[in-house]
Specification:
The protein is an alpha+beta fold. It contains 16 helices and 30 strands. A hairpin with a 5-residue loop joins strand 4 and strand 5. The longest helix is centred in the first third of the chain and has 28 residues. The two termini are 60 Å apart.
Length: 706
Amino acid sequence: MPTKTKLIIVESPAKGKTIVRYLGRGYKVEASQGHVRDLPKSQLGIDTQNDFVLKYITIRGRGDILARIRKEAKNASVIYLATDPDREGEAIAWHLAGVLDLDVAAPCRVEFHEVTKKAVQAALKAPRAIDMNLVDAQQARRALDRIVGYKISPLLWAKIRKGLSAGRVQSVATRLVVLREREIDIFIPEEYWEITGYAQTGKNGAGLPVKLVTLDGRKSHIVNETMATEVRKRIETQEMVVTSIKQSEKRKSPAAPFTTSSLQQEAGRKLNFTTQKTMQVVQSLYEGVEIAGEGLQGLVTYIRTDSVRVSAEALASIREFIPARYGQAYLPNVPNEYKGRKNAQDAHEAIRPTDINRTPVSIKESLSRDQFNLYKLIYFRFLASQMAPAVFDTLTVDISTVNNDIGLRFYGEHKKFAGFTYVYEEGTDEDSSDSIEMKLPELMGNGKVIVSGLECKQIFTQPPSRYTEAALVRALEEKGIGRPSTYAPTITTIIARGYVSREKKRLFPTELGKITTDLMEEYFTSIVDTDFTAELEEKLDLVEDGSLSWKDVLKGFFPPFMKTLEIAEKEIEKIEVQNPVSDIPCENCGSLLVYKKGRYGEFLACPRFPDCRFTKQIVHYIQAPCPQCGARIVEKLSKKNRLFYGCEAYPDCSFVSWYKPVEEKCPQCGGYMVEKRSKKSETRHECANDTCRYRVIIEEEDAELS
C-alpha cells in the first residue's frame, strides 16, 4: 500500500516548483493553474429570480488538471490549499474544497506572503478555515462584472459593432481617457511672458539667475510682448537692491515602499514597462527564480497589495543592513512609518525583497534583463524607504527696485547630505519643480545690484497631458476604481477592444471609444460614474469585513440596472462607426482602403467586406537607410510584441537592430549610429560599433515619462 503524502495545492506551477524545494519527504505539490470553476460562457449563469444563485461549471481545459488533483488527493493524508492570499485565491481554495469534498470549516487553508522556506514552513504550521467573507466578496465582484458585461455587451454588438464589450471597471477607465481628450479639445491656450536675467552685487559679486516674481505689488502676470518689453525697460533703468537673503535647510523624505499601483507607475516611468509587462515580470520574481548556488528562490513578497506596511522582522533586518553598508548617519533614529491610502487593504505587506542581503548585483547573472531591472527598482525603493532624509541647504535672494514696484528672485539648493537619495529617487509623471540644484554662491551683504542679460520669453499655458498607463493607474487608484489585481488587465482590455490606443506611450481614445462612452454616459450613467463605481468597491470591502451580505449588494444593484437596460434597448438607434479612409486603392476592386484594428494592430482592409476580403499590412519606414545594403528599414514587432528594426530586403539582407538607426554616421569610426534613451530621459545618438561607442546627447526631455 502506497505511503500517504501531504498534498499542497497552489495556483502556479512555477510557485509549486519553488516551494517543493523547501519541503521534506512526504509532501506533494500540485498546481490548479488559476481558477478551476467559473460561470459558464454560454449563459449569464446567475439565477436572478432565485436569490442570485450562481451556476459554476468546470472551466474548459481544466478537466485533466482536476483529475490529476483528485488522484493525488486520494493518496493524501492531509490536503492544504495554498492559493494566493487574496479574494481570488480564497475563492479558488473554496472551489477546490468543493471539488475535493473538503470541509471549508476545517483547517485546510494555508497562506504565505512570500515564497521563502521560512514563510512556507510557518504557514504549514498554522492552517486555518476558508474565509467565507473573502469568498463572498469575490462572488459579489464576479456576479456584478458578469451582469454588466453580459447585459450591456449584446446591446453594444447590436447598436454599434460586433465584438464590443462593457465592463464595470473598463468602461470607467475608457471614460477617463475620453474625458481627458475632451479637456484637451476645448482647451484655449493663454499667453504669458517670463522675464529672467542675472544679478550681480558689486564688481566681484556672484552672478545669480533671477526671475521676475512681483510687479506693482502683485504676483507678476505679463500677458503680451508689449507689456514684457515695458517691464524689461523699467528693470534696466531703475536702481535695484537686495532686500532679503534667506538661507535655510530643507529635508526631503523617502517615498513609501511599493504597492501594486506605485510599482506599475514607477516601472512605467523608469523602465518604460507597460502595466501588463510589470505584472508578468514581478510575478516571476514572486514565484521563484533559479539563483546560482541557492536554487529556486522567491525574491519579492506578494505582489497584489495596496498596503505600505512592513513586517517587524523585515524592519529589524533592514535596520541592521543600512548602517553596516552605508554608515550610521543613513539610519533614522526610529523606523520610517507610512500612511496608506484610504480604504487600503492591510492584509499584505508592501512589495519588498524577501531578503535585504540579496542585493541586485549579487544575483544579476541569474536574472533576465527585465527581472534584474525590476528587482533593482523594488530593492532600492524598499531600502530607501527606511533611510534618513536627504538634507539640502537652500538660498532665496529677493531683489527689488528702491520703491519696491518690481521684485526679482533667485532660489537655489545644494544637497549637503544625500540620505536616501544615495540609493534611490522617485520618478514623476510631470516635472513641476522650479528649483535649481547647484552649489550655492557666497553673497555680499545687502547692497546695490546690477541686473543684466535680461530675457523675455513667451510661454503659452498647456492643456492637460494625455494619460500614460502609469498616470491612468494612479487616477483609478485615487478614485477608488478597481483593486491592485485589476489595473493591468483593465488597461490591456480597453486597448485590445479598440476603445483606446497607445501612441508614443500616451493613451488616446479611438472614435469607437468616444462613441461607446457617449452611449454609456447617456443610458448607463451609474456604470461609468466614478463615484458609483467606487461605492460598489466599498461595498465589496464591507462584504469582506463580514458587515454586509454579498447578495444584498446584488439585490440593490440589479433592479435599477435592468430598468436602465430596458430603456436603452428601446431608445438607442443603430450607430455606424466610420473607419478612417486611406488614399490607397484596393488591389481587387479599386475601393479606397480603410484603417481597421485587429488582434495584431492596425491594418488596411477593403470597405466592401465581406464581398471583397482584400487586406494589406501597414508598413512603417524610418528615414535612415540600411547600413548593410542601403535599402529602406522597416519597423517590425517581435513575437513578444517588442519593436525592432529590420531591412526590407530580408532575407537577402540580414540587418536587424533593437535600436532605431539614424541617418548620421559616427564621426569617429564611420559606423552607423542608433537612437537610445537614457534613464534620465536624455535622447542620444550612439555608435553601434562595440569597440567605439561614440555618443552624443541630442536633446533634453522633460521628466514626463510613462
